[in-house]
Design brief:
It comes from Actinokineospora terrae. Keywords: Lyase. The protein is α/β, with parallel strands linked by helices and about 260 residues long. Helices cover about 45% and strands about 10% of the residues. It contains ten helices and eight strands. The protein has helices spanning about 5-15, 30-35, 50-55, 65-80, 95-105, 120-135, 160-175, 190-200, 215-220, 230-245, and strands at about 20-25, 45, 85, 110-115, 140-145, 180, 205, 225. α2 (about 30-35) packs parallel to α4, α6 runs parallel beside α7 and α7 (about 160-175) runs parallel beside α8 (about 190-200). The model has no long low-confidence stretch (mean pLDDT about 95).
């Protein structure tokens, strides 16, 4: 591992520990990485596995071969000097090895889904990933251990889902993860309960329509908000709207930015 990679890992961890909320608008290839990185205020990049898979013709859910995922992540890392954290789904069958492969291309953090596995199994996977990162020389690797209990809640009692998320989050922190990721459309009371349970600057969330304002999340002690595949959906919506405009006799909108 290069000293620059070590520095980027340390900086990514610092950004999560800072009381200022870290926001990352997810990218899926080199050009989106460059565009996002060039916007003032961008401090780190995060990939979106769903978006990368879609851009290569695969559905979400570990259908893309891990080699293709890592290859696209490398393109993103190579496009910026900022720290990059990679969304690596559930680890593609061997989470520790996948983390090693990601580190080899310059990644300094990762999302890892628990896919609602038994909690002991999921915590052991977190511990294995942390051990793998340390063995590769990245002691400050920012594993964002994700629990899918809200995503897959179905008709479960919301109070039970919250309790499950808290138990899993604590287990993953105890296993060595520096932060935990609880995606879902959460209200302020649920976010408050999670932060109270895991501590400030330990919880990361996804920004969905209807998510509490970023200022409120920062005040509560949330570490980071990311946007997953929503950034790609916004971009594709703009593309679809351009096509509709052209079909109606219009054209490229005024104010469209040039690519550098």
């Amino acid at each position: 591992m290069s000293s620059s990679q070590s520095d980027r890992a340390r900086e990514l961890l610092r950004l999560h520990r800072d009381p200022a909320l870290l926001t990352v608008v997810n990218v899926w290839d080199a050009i989106t990485a460059k565009v996002v990185a060039d916007i003032p205020g961008t401090k780190a990049l995060a990939t979106a596995s769903h978006s990368i898979a879609a851009s290569r013709g695969y559905p979400d859910g570990e259908k893309i071969p891990v080699a293709e995922m890592i290859a696209e992540v490398k393109n993103i890392v190579d496009a910026t000097d900022l720290p990059v954290t990679a969304d690596l789904e559930g680890g593609y069958g061997d989470a520790a090895d996948t983390i090693r492969r990601a580190i080899a291309v310059g990644v300094v953090g990762a999302n890892l889904e628990d896919q609602v596995k038994p909690i002991a199994e999921a915590a052991a996977q977190v511990a294995a990933v942390i051990a793998a990162a340390e063995a590769e020389g990245v002691a400050d690797f920012v594993l964002n251990a994700r629990t899918d209990v809200f995503v897959k809640a179905g008709d479960r009692d919301p109070a039970e889902v919250l309790a499950d998320a808290i138990e899993r989050s604590r287990a993953y922190l105890d296993a060595g993860a520096p932060v935990v990721f609880v995606p879902g459309k959460l209200d302020l009371d649920q976010v408050t309960a999670l932060v109270d349970a895991v501590g400030p600057q330990r919880l990361t969330l996804i920004g969905l329509p209807g998510t509490p304002p970023l200022a409120d999340l920062e005040r509560l002690g949330v570490a980071r908000v990311s946007y997953g595949p929503l950034s790609q959906r916004v971009a594709l919506t703009a593309l679809a709207e351009l096509v509709e405009s052209v079909h109606q006799g219009g054209g490229v909108p005024e104010g469209t930015r040039p690519l550098n």
